[in-house]
C-alpha cells in the first residue's frame, strides 16, 4: 500500500503509465475482499488494476506452500504484463523491505546456505522475461507504517504473517522476542552480497578459459574445472545447469556433490532439468528430454524459455508449433550425424511441427530455411554469471 501511494503521484509528475496487480492466492477467505479493497484504492488514484487468481492453490501442501505461492505469483504477474505490453520494457515494482532481507537471511542461515543464499535479495533483476525492481529494500516496515499513518492512509494486515505454521512467521517472532535489530542483519546481508559479487567475478574470469556454448549446451573442460577452488567449481556447474534449464534456483549442494560423484562413476547423470554427460575430458550439460518432450509453443514465442526460431520469409505460420525434435523427429533427418552434434543435444533441440508432421529441424538440418538461436532472458552464458 505504501509503494502504491508513493508511485502514483510520482508517475503523474513523470508522465509514466502505472498498472497495479493483486494476486489472490485463495488461501484465506478474506483474500478476495482484500483484492477488491486494493482495486477500490487504485480507482481513487486513477490507476488501472487487475486481480489475478491462483487457481491451483489447493494442490500445494503446507510444507511447500509459501514457495509454490511465490512462484505462482511471479508467473501470474509476468504473464499478465506480457499479455498487456508484449515484449516492451515494463519494470515491475515489488515492495519488499529491509525486514524481508533480515528474515530471509535468517531462514537461509538456518538451512545452511552459503554466500549466495545469505546475500541481500536482489533489487534489480530479470526473470520470466521481465525486469523486477525492489525500490524499498532500505526501508523498514515500521518506517512504511509511520509514513502511511502520517499520510492518513490505512492498510490491511495479513494474518499469515503471524501464523506460526510458517517458517517466516516463526523467524519474525523470534527476532522480535530476542530484540535483534533487523537493520544490522540486513547490513550483514549486504556485505555478503559484496562477497558474492567478488566470487561471481572470479568465476566469470575462469569460465572464459574452460567453458564454451554449443547448440544450446554448455561444455566444460574437466581438467581445468578440477584446478579451480571448490567454491568456483560448484558455482560454474550450478550456473551452467541453471542457464541451460532457466531454473530460478540453484540445486542444493548435496545434490550437486552426488551428481559429480555419479559422473565420475558412470559418466552420466541428471540434475536440475539437465543431462550431464562426460566424454573424455569434457563435461556437456544438455537439457533433459523428459522436461521438454511434451513442451509446445507458438512459432513466434520463446520455446523452453530460451529458443527463438525464425521462419523463411512469407511463410504461413498458421497451424505450426515449436516442440523438441525428439526420437520421432530425428528419424526424419537421416544425415544428422554429419553435423557432429550429439544425439542427446539434437533430441532436445527445437523443431517445427504441424501436428505430428515434422516441418523443420533447424539444428539437425540447417538447409530447411528455418534458424534457431538462443535468446536467453538472462543474456549469454558468460555475462549472466555476473548477475545470476
UniProtKB/TrEMBL annotation:
Q: What is its EC number?
A: 6.3.4.19
InterPro entries registered for this protein in UniProt: TilS/TtcA_N, tRNA_Ile_lys_synt, tRNA_Ile_lys_synt_N
| Matches recorded under CDD domains | TilS_N
Broadest EC class?
A: ligase
Domain of life, per the record?
Bacteria
Protein family (similarity comment): Belongs to the tRNA(Ile)-lysidine synthase family.
* Designated name of the protein: tRNA(Ile)-lysidine synthase
Amino acid at each position: 500500500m505504501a509503494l502504491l501511494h508513493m508511485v502514483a503521484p510520482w508517475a503523474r509528475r513523470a508522465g509514466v503509465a502505472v498498472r497495479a496487480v493483486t494476486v489472490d492466492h485463495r488461501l484465506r477467505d478474506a483474500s478476495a475482499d482484500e483484492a477488491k479493497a486494493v482495486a477500490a484504492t487504485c480507482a481513487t488514484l486513477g490507476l488501472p488494476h487487475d486481480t489475478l487468481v491462483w487457481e491451483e492453490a489447493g494442490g500445494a501442501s503446507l510444507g511447500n506452500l509459501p514457495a509454490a505461492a511465490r512462484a505462482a505469483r511471479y508467473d501470474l504477474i509476468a504473464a499478465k504484463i506480457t499479455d498487456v505490453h508484449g515484449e516492451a520494457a515494463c519494470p515491475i515494482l515489488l515492495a519488499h523491505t529491509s525486514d524481508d532481507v533480515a528474515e530471509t537471511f535468517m531462514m537461509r542461515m538456518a538451512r545452511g546456505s552459503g554466500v549466495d543464499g545469505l546475500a541481500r535479495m536482489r533489487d534489480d533483476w530479470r526473470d520470466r522475461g521481465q525486469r523486477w525492481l525492489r525500490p524499498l529494500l532500505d526501508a523498514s516496515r515500521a518506517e512504511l507504517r509511520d509514513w502511511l499513518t502520517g499520510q492518513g492512509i490505512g492498510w490491511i494486515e495479513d494474518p499469515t504473517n503471524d501464523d506460526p505454521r510458517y517458517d517466516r512467521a516463526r523467524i519474525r517472532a523470534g527476532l522480535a522476542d530476542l530484540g535483534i535489530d533487523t537493520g544490522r542483519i540486513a547490513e550483514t546481508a549486504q556485505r555478503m552480497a559484496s562477497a558474492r559479487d567478488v566470487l561471481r567475478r572470479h568465476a566469470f574470469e575462469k569460465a572464459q578459459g574452460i567453458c564454451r556454448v554449443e547448440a544450446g549446451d554448455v561444455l566444460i573442460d574437466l581438467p581445468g574445472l578440477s584446478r579451480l577452488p571448490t567454491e568456483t567449481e560448484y558455482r560454474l556447474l550450478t550456473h551452467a545447469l541453471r542457464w541451460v534449464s532457466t531454473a530460478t534456483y540453484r540445486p542444493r549442494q548435496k545434490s550437486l556433490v552426488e551428481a559429480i560423484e555419479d559422473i565420475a562413476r558412470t559418466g552420466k547423470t541428471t540434475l536440475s532439468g539437465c543431462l550431464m554427460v562426460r566424454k573424455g575430458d569434457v563435461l556437456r550439460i544438455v537439457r533433459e528430454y523428459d522436461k521438454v518432450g511434451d513442451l509446445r509453443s507458438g512459432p513466434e514465442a520463446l520455446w523452453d524459455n530460451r529458443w527463438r526460431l525464425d521462419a523463411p520469409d512469407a511463410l504461413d505460420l498458421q497451424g505450426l508449433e515449436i516442440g523438441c525434435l525428439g526420437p520421432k523427429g530425428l528419424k526424419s533427418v537421416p544425415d544428422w550425424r554429419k553435423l557432429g552434434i550429439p544425439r542427446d543435444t539434437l533430441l532436445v533441440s527445437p523443431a517445427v511441427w504441424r501436428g505430428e508432421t515434422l516441418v523443420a529441424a533447424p539444428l539437425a538440418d540447417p538447409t530447411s530455411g528455418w534458424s534457431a538461436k538462443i535468446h536467453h532472458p538472462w543474456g549469454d552464458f558468460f555475462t549472466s554469471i555476473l548477475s545470476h
